[in-house]
């Protein structure tokens, strides 16, 4: 992957082969409990190819749980989740393939602490995608350059700043050539001065056409990058709309209260 600069996302003419008419991700009547706690209540949601969805809502409303059900880190009690028209596999090889298609970046930097940045990048592409070391290294260096941390490749994660680690986490997820990227509050554990360097990478990815679901309270990002905002509270989706509509004219009292606290 050397040569002229290629986009970090799938972009135009990318590898994605989807039916333009059906959603890339679809949750239909999804329910989930943790014991007696009802965490997801009749969740209906679709994300189209290339769409950027921002999910906001108070702490404990089920945003992380919803994200985790999409790559099957959490099971659901009932309902259906489809990726590219296919119901989520339950286990085995199919599940591994799905996980490769759904990239995820969490709040806490989840790099392997005892591996170099380059090893963090190449492990899964070599194991799951069966890439050669040379190809995996080339792709990794290319992606690290795109997120601006190629000079850190031989370092250990602890030697990088939080913002750099989070950019590596994004690059590492992209190395699997995912169809969709899930971000669960990727900047909320960062020192304030590092937030923008991570959001800038996300905005670039959005501009290049990546399909994204982003749990974030970064309103600047939502206004710049989101096609749609979803507001969750108490396990339900209460509102859904264009960013400007939602932020300026929230309809429900819950959303009005929530926005008055964070804006
Ligand atoms: P959010 O991301 O919106 O803050 P979460 O999805 O993390 O919300 O949590 C939703 C609810 O589920 C919360 O009440 C939380 O305490 C609970 N919860 C989350 N994960 C677990 C778990 N593994 N076991 C039991 N309860 C959980
Ligand atoms: Mg959460």
UniProtKB/TrEMBL annotation:
PANTHER family (UniProt xref): AMINO ACID IMPORT ATP-BINDING PROTEIN, GLUTAMATE_ASPARTATE IMPORT ATP-BINDING PROTEIN GLTL
Main localization category: membrane
CDD domains assigned: ABC_HisP_GlnQ (cd03262)
Localization (cell): Cell membrane
Designated name of the protein: Amino acid ABC transporter ATP-binding protein
PROSITE patterns, sorted: ABC_TRANSPORTER_1 (PS00211), ABC_TRANSPORTER_2 (PS50893)
Annotated spans, Disordered: 1-22
Membrane-related topology note: Peripheral membrane protein
Keyword Plastid: no
Keywords: Amino-acid transport, ATP-binding, Cell membrane, Membrane, Nucleotide-binding, Transport
One GO molecular-function entry: ATP binding
């Amino acid at each position: 992957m050397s040569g002229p600069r290629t986009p970090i996302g799938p972009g135009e003419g990318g590898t994605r082969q989807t039916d333009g008419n059906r959603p890339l991700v679809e949750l239909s009547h999804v329910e989930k409990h943790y014991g007696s706690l009802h965490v997801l209540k009749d969740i209906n949601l679709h994300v189209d190819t290339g769409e950027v969805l921002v999910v906001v809502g108070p702490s404990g409303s089920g945003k992380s749980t919803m994200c985790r059900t999409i790559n099957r880190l959490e099971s659901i009690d009932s309902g259906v989740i489809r990726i590219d028209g296919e119901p989520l596999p339950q286990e085995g090889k199919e599940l591994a393939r799905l996980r490769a298609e759904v990239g995820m970046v969490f709040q806490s930097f989840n790099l392997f602490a005892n591996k170099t940045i380059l090893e963090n990048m190449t492990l899964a592409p070599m194991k799951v995608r069966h890439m050669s070391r040379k190809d995996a290294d080339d792709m990794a260096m290319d992606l690290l350059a795109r997120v601006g941390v190629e000079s850190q490749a031989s370092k250990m994660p602890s030697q990088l700043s939080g913002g750099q680690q989070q950019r590596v986490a994004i690059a590492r997820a992209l190395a699997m050539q995912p169809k969709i990227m899930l971000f669960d509050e990727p900047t909320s554990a960062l020192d304030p001065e590092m937030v923008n360097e991570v959001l800038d990478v996300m905005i670039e990815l959005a501009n290049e056409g990546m399909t994204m679901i982003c749990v974030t309270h970064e309103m600047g990002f939502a206004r710049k990058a989101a096609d749609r905002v979803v507001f969750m509270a108490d396990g339900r989706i209460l509102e859904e709309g264009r960013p400007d509509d939602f932020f300026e004219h929230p309809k429900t009292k819950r959303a009005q209260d929530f926005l008055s606290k964070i804006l």
